[in-house]
Design goal:
alpha/beta
Length: about 325
Amino acid sequence: MNIHQLQAVCNIARHRYNISAAAETLERSQSGLSRQVKELELELGVQIFLRTRNKVIGLTPHGERILRTAQRILQDLRTLEQIGEEEVAEEGGELRVATTHVHARYLLPGTVKAFARRFPRVALTLQQSDPVQCRDLIAAGEADVGIITMVQKVADPIVTIPAYRLPRCVIVPLGHPLVREQRPTLQILAEYPLIAYPATFSGRSIVERAFARAGLKPRIVCSATDADVCKAYVEVGMGIAVLAKVAFDSSADHRLAAIDAGHLFLPGILNLVLRKHGYLTRPLESFLAQFAPHIDRELILNAIDGADIERARLAERAPVAAVSRV
């Protein structure tokens, strides 16, 4: 058994069982990657992947356990490397932050600027993806921290720490009939076409669940991962949008209006997402302290170690996120 075999298993699973994509990421041949997996299966005496006509289509029950163990081993090896690299980390290196467009655009500029002043030789990379992709980057060790809204699952190799609440508002063009509504209802909103996030975004599920509880189904005419794109289509009259309040900038969105919708939709919970049993480097610790100074370092360390941090209580007490002003 060797590291290359474990990397093969983890990357094939990460790339949704696309061996070609996994091989390209690892800079290996497809045949070599397949051979490494088969050798590991022979050594362990169990089948890791389900196959049909020599095509990998999923994981066996044994494979799911092997994948989790392999991810943990590779993460532990990366942690050892980070401990050894820490003394020179401030003189170079990279901090990788996985997040969605709206948080990169509206919440992180001040934090990023402060971090660059504190660690001028450390490159900060914002990896913008949807929440599921961000979670996968963190789980695979390809991002150091995530700033996303998502729910942690029991078997996840990541941990989530509730940091901020994200109240909702309804975005409409200026002069829209909804502007005259003092307190719009879901029944009234359902009369208008909706511009929404994709189904992988928690903001989409929050909206759909609220309508479903009222026995309604919104008419979604367009989906976009970018809050600014959603607002652009609202501006041209395609429909209305339900977004986090932080995505509305009164100084820039002068052709739009934002209507408070806190009475209709639950707030989203923005989490700090880290790898379980990962290593809190000085640059990462500084970034977290700048972005969420109300979250105690000890709590972060306990979360990384897998301790119960009472997420529901933290989410309830989390402050409301505010637009970052640089």
